[in-house]
Amino acid sequence: MYRVLAAAAAATLVTGCASLTGLTSSTGSTVTPGQNCGRPPGMIIIVGAHRNAPEPSLGPVMTCQLTAAIQAGVPVRIVISDGQPQVIDPQLAPVTGGTLAQQASPRAREDVQRVQRVIAAARPASAGADDLAALAIAADEAHALGVPGAELVLLDSGLDDRGALNFTVPGMVAATPAEVAGQLKSTRNLPDLSRFTVVLAGIGYTAPPQVPLPARWRANLTQIWTTVATAAGAKVQVIPQPGQSPSIVTNEPVQPVPVPTAGEVTPAAHATIVFTGTSPVQFDPNSASFIDQSAVVQALRPIARWLAASSSRHAWLEGTTADVGPITGQVALSVQRADHVRSVLVSLGASPGQITTSGVGSRFPQFVRDRDAAGALLAAPATLNRSVRITLS
């Protein structure tokens, strides 16, 4: 069944799913009679059949779109996204003749169910998950089938543990989406998805033992994939499809992705508290502006209260940056970041005289190299290097 590349049969396009009244998705939802799901020229479903992600299943939206593709008689393929993604031809019955009613007959219903069964039975043949490679393979498959405008459905968590978009790298989950896309482009790892529509379904939803992603990081992960696919030339559709089922049973391992936490800090004399781009005190890449002001206030309030409790207490704030631009500009920006944190602490009750600020740009002992050998900016380390380091006494 693997890598069977049958030629697409010519067919009259049938709009919608009205003729398959009562068809259920693999999540148990019923496809709405008369629902219009468009006319996809082809459909490649990328299935995250691996550990740490919910067992893959088609929701009602994807079931309806699959039904439209089958009614239209266009190519449908499945790509299993593991460490080495693989293509499956579900062996659908050809639609080369007959009336429209016959083309939308129980035969079409059976084909939808056949695809659902293939997805439910999908298992990894290798360790890991590489959705970015799976997208590239899906695009190649669509070109081979003569449908370069096909719909590429990514039905997975999006948490690759290998390849060019490896989210096990510290800081990647919190990385700036535009910088991630820029890194892939600079390193020539951005696939060509021109003319395709990429559907993102269930991005960011996990299964044990993977730690769940809070809504903030789930949204950022979705935006990373959206930005990457858009930069690759695709149109993007996002379908929030929360997955709550356990992952499939398999012996092939997947590395867990570190999830930034927003634990409350505990101020104390001689303590050093570091707020990087993975913390609530997160800055825009080349700015001293906070991404989430309310999160910043919540994170800094314990420090402000600790300072306000005694006039003899002091805080030294040191701002840092990624290695972007000349060092003079980096230092100036890092000072602005420290000053911005200082202003929040003062607004929360600390005395201005208790706080000293400075900035060092990218020249600090804890700096993580954020450029590769060719000089391309690496999004994850750059996120870690944008910080304010607070030393208390």
Strand content: 5-15%
Helix content: 25-40%
> What distance separates the N and C termini?
67 Å
Query: What would CATH call the architecture of the largest domain?
Result: 3-Layer(aba) Sandwich
Features:
393 residues, disordered N terminus, alpha/beta, six-stranded mixed sheet, 9 helices
Word description of this protein:
The chain has 393 residues and is of the alpha/beta class. The protein folds into 2 domains: 18-239, Rossmann fold, CATH 3.40.50; 272-392, 2-Layer Sandwich (60s Ribosomal Protein L30, Chain: A), CATH 3.30.1330.60. Helices cover 30% and strands 12% of the residues. It contains 9 helices and 10 strands. The strands form 2 sheets. It has a 6-stranded mixed beta sheet, sandwiched between helices. A 4-stranded mixed beta sheet has the order 7-10-8-9. α1 crosses α3. The longest helix is centred in the last third of the chain and has 21 residues, at 327-347. It is elongated. The N and C termini lie far apart (67 Å). 49% of the residues are buried. The model is unreliable at 1-23, 27-34 and 98-102 (pLDDT under 50).
Tell me briefly what this model is.
The chain has 393 residues and is α/β, with parallel strands linked by helices.
Secondary structure layout plus pairing:
Layout: E1 43-47, H1 60-72, E2 76-80, E3 86-88, H2 100-103, H3 106-121, H4 131-144, E4 151-155, H5 177-186, E5 197-201, H6 215-231, E6 235-239, E7 272-275, H7 293-308, E8 315-320, H8 327-347, E9 355-359, H9 379-385, E10 387-392
Parallel strand pairs: 1-2, 1-4, 4-5, 5-6, 8-9
Antiparallel strand pairs: 2-3, 7-10, 8-10
